[in-house]
Design brief:
alpha/beta, D-Maltodextrin-Binding Protein, domain 2, 2 domains, eleven-stranded mixed beta sheet, two-stranded antiparallel ribbon, 15 strands, globular
């Protein structure tokens, strides 16, 4: 059993044996849940850091503590803009947390500081059968880097009144359908100033979620962008020998080209979300958790949501921001931390967290349940097909994507082929260093 394992892995397996047995029982729901007469048996102190506000996590933290008399589980909120530096400084001082509530970007930045749970402790087959495919981003050859909790998928927000007044009964399912609607839905004055937009694509600074939208378009062509092996995957070719990714990049940028029939956006317009909220844009690609903000900022806006449009002939795919919990290598209570991570990703608590945050669950047994509202059903369906890529240096990759898009707008790149080459080279230098 241990023939090919390192000494560290052997010790880790031995330490986790008891935690695995109890944790898997909790994970599967075969042990008493909070409120029962018995307790689960997680003991010791377990601290967790994350960027979810404390009030959103309070009930779950209290419930886990109540179910385990010997456990002192504490959660600490940290500002998303400062948590990375604070985490590094805390580790250097020997006072870091036991658990880190991470996004699919954060885990790859700190992969060398997070404990990989060997498949001996948590079988890969169990993980794959339990969570949606997008959650496989947290797996590597050795084991599991994080236990998934919830997912925030991109969805298509659309102005119902705008569509219906133009004779459009349903939201488009394919990108070419949106392209065909530009002449009908985009309104310009004689000076070609855009008064109403079909969709806010083409620029970077004033397009909300621009990098994620471009990532979605590229991944819909079958390119993973960055793999868990840190290799860059952008250059798969079609039957004509052309980069499929170039089609995604040129599709996105054409909407900001005044000489193109797809022209529907430019860099001087307000932010795409604000333009949609004001009723001046027919479509907006945003995250599920933006729903209430849109509703609150304009209660009179007649809008609905649908799954993001697809590329014809390709597998159905969306993009999602994954939320998961990782055990920190320096944890003084790794067994307890591992068991708490399993509890958080169990059906009971993962469902509570997802509902509290208005996100979609990442567990298959929760996603397939009938949703309580039409909005949630779209979130659930999107979660099943959502993907992401390891993005360890989000601010720097933001700049890379911005430079590529801005370069297309200013004529620096003549075609999508040049854009793909530049994106490939810069991501390789950044991520594989």
């Amino acid at each position: 059993m241990f023939g090919k394992m390192s000494t560290f892995q052997i010790v880790l397996v031995i330490v986790f044996i008891l935690g695995t047995i109890i944790g898997m029982l909790m994970f599967s729901g075969k042990i008493p849940t909070p409120g029962g007469k018995d307790t689960v048996g997680i003991t010791g102190r377990v601290s967790m850091w994350g960027t979810i506000r404390g009030e959103e996590m309070r009930e779950v933290v209290e419930a886990i503590n109540k179910a385990n008399e010997g456990l002192n589980f504490a959660y600490s909120y940290h500002n998303p803009n400062t948590i990375n530096q604070e985490f590094i400084e805390a580790l250097a001082s020997g006072i870091g947390p036991d658990l880190l509530l991470v996004s699919n970007a954060t885990f790859s930045r700190f992969s060398d500081k997070l404990l990989v749970i060997p498949y001996v402790n948590f079988p890969e087959r169990t993980y794959i059968d339990t969570f949606v495919r997008g959650a496989e981003i947290f797996l590597n050859k050795e084991g599991i880097i994080a236990m998934p909790i919830a997912i925030n998928p991109l969805v298509l927000y659309y102005n119902v009144s705008t569509l219906e007044s133009n004779g459009i009964a349903v939201a488009p399912k394919y990108w070419d359908e949106i392209l065909a609607l530009v002449p009908k839905l985009t309104k310009k004055d004689p000076a070609l100033n855009i008064l109403e937009s079909t969709i806010g694509f083409g620029s970077f600074d004033n397009v909300a979620n621009a990098k994620d939208i471009v990532s979605l378009l590229i991944m819909q062509t079958g390119n993973a962008i960055v793999g868990t092996d840190k290799n860059i995957y952008l250059k798969s070719e079609d039957s004509r020998g052309e980069y499929k990714s170039s089609q995604a990049l040129t599709f996105f940028t054409q909407f900001a080209d005044p000489s193109n029939t797809a022209y529907s956006w430019n860099r001087v317009l307000p932010n795409t979300k604000q333009f949609f909220i004001s009723g001046k844009s027919a479509f907006y690609l945003g995250y599920a958790d933006e729903l209430f903000e849109i509703q609150n900022k304009n209660p009179n806006l007649d809008f609905d949501i649908a799954m993001v449009p697809q590329a014809r002939g390709s597998a159905v795919l969306s993009f999602g921001d994954m939320l998961a919990v990782s055990v920190v290598k320096s944890s003084k209570n790794p067994t307890g931390a591992f068991m708490v991570s399993q509890a958080l990703s169990s059906s009971l608590y993962a469902d509570q967290i997802a509902k509290r945050l208005s996100l979609a669950p990442v567990r298959r047994d929760l996603v397939v349940k009938p949703a309580s509202s039409p909005y949630l059903q779209i979130f659930f369906n999107s979660a099943l097909v959502a993907r992401a890529w390891p993005d360890p240096y989000t601010e720097k990759t933001d700049q890379v994507f911005k430079d590529i898009i801005d370069g297309a707008n200013t004529g620096r790149y003549r075609n999508g082929y040049e854009m793909v080459n530049e994106l490939q080279n810069r991501l390789s230098l950044l991520i594989k260093k």
